Amino acid sequence: MKEAIKFVLVLAVTTLVIFIVRTYAITIYTVPNTIAQPALKAGDRVMVNKLARDSFHVGDLIVFCEGQNFIGQIKAIPGDTVKCYGNQYILPTRCCSRCRCEVCRNYLVVVGDMSTLVPYHKMVGKAYRLFNLELWK
In 102-127, which positions are buried (b, 16+ CB within 10 angstroms) versus exposed (e)? Predict the structure, then answer.
């Protein structure tokens, strides 16, 4: 009886630790079929490091939330000049005038064949490619 209680306790603690790690630190994300990117293919598995939110660079893969999770690649960081429809724009170093967060910035992220501005506070974390499920079939 004593060993059964120990087993249940260890199982409960392990489950709690795994839940906390998956919620706040690291999670696995599968790239959906709707995304066609040079760096990723549909079915790729990526590990998302939710703690790596301090600095992003051009070329980094990120997961961000716009109602649902999307994965994209950073093409420009705050302060970079981008060209759109023949006009040049400088990405602002602040996401908006109402935001009081010091690190809130807009990043130009490419998702599939579209570019979008993603504010820092909508980023889930940095993504690292693990493997492609198509190779395992």
Answer: eebbbbbbbbeeeeeebbbebbbbbb
